[in-house]
Amino acid sequence: MSSLLKTSIPWTKGYFAFPPPASDSRTHFASATNQLIAEEPRVLQEHLERAKLVAEATWKEEAWQERCRRDAQRRTERLERERTEALVGEMAWVRAGGSLRDALGRRDVVRTEQLRAEIRLLDEEQRLMTRWNAYETRWRTLIAATTPISFADIPWPVIHSPHSMDELHSGAVEEFLLAPLRVRGNTITKRERIRASILRWHPDKLSVLLQRVVQEDADVVREGVNAVFRYLKALQDSIGKN
After folding, report:
1. Is residue 131 domain-shared with residue 93, that is, in the same domain?
2. pLDDT band at residue 35 using 50, 70 and 90 as cut-offs
3. Per the annotation, which location comes first and is thus the protein's main one (predicted)?
4. Are residues 164 and 60 in the same domain?
5. Based on the structure, what is the number of domains in the chain?
């Protein structure tokens, strides 16, 4: 064994090779860490300042957009008021018998006729709603009272208060109840109007009211209530088939 060592491994004078001491890398790492720790507040402050600038810019942009929106809305509302005021003035002038004129001072026949047609339509709608509101008011007043009532006190669903059963027919009842539905902006359907009227005119629902009718009108009032109820049921059936 000793001879093998002597012949296989040459021995030379010199130094053993060892890795460099680890103290240098640890020192470098510690120095870098300390530098990061020292710089962290400054970096964080820079991030905060940039975020603040972005937030301020966003807020200013949103505020500007909101201001532009409000200004546009105010301009739109002002123009709408001006158009409405001008239209009211024109309609008052036409209603009084005047004629409109164009930008060159010539008579504007087309525009004048359009306003006259609108005035007629508005007047008709006002008439229908006034009549219907009066009908509803009469019913509320009648139900709230306790005094005796006659045939003439009943708010019959016809345009003109009837004096007899001859004036209380199905065509008159249909026209009175459904005419207000032609008013622009109405949201009530024919079915809804007829259903509500059937509930109101049902003889059983009016039993308490009928007890207040004076003796001499009791028969004709009862006959009228039953007739109106039949007309309404027939009208409901006819609409249901359409």
Report:
1. no
2. low
3. nucleus
4. no
5. 2
With a CB cutoff of 8 Å and minimum separation 6, the contacts of 158 are 167, 168, 172, 173, 176
- pLDDT tens-digit series, residues 38-69: 666 777 677 777 888 888 888 888 888 888 98
Q: Per-residue pLDDT for 15 more than 50?
A: no
**169 within a domain of the structure (yes/no):** yes
- Picking from 59, 83, 98, the residue at the C-terminal end of a domain is 98
The residue to which tokens 């164009």 are assigned: 102
Residues 90 and 141 in one domain: no
Q: What one-character DSSP code corresponds to residue 101?
A: B
Nearest to 228 by CA among 205, 242, 29, 122: 205
Strand partners, 160: none
Nearest to residue 228, comparing CAs of 184, 170, 178? 170
Q: Could you tell me if 166 and 74 lie in one domain?
A: no
Strand, coil or helix: 78: helix
Rounded CA gap, 161 and 202, in Å? Answer: 20
Whether residue 149 is found in the same domain as residue 223: yes
- Selection from 150, 164, 148, 156 nearest residue 216 by Cα: 150
CA distance 11 to 32: 44
Residue 67 domain-assigned (yes or no): yes
- Which of 148, 144, 147, 142 lies closest to 217 in space, CA to CA? 148
Contact between 191 and 239 under an 8 Å Cβ cutoff? The reply is yes
The structure tokens listed for 10 are 């040459």
- Give the range of the structural domain holding residue 197, as residue numbers without chain letter: 123-241
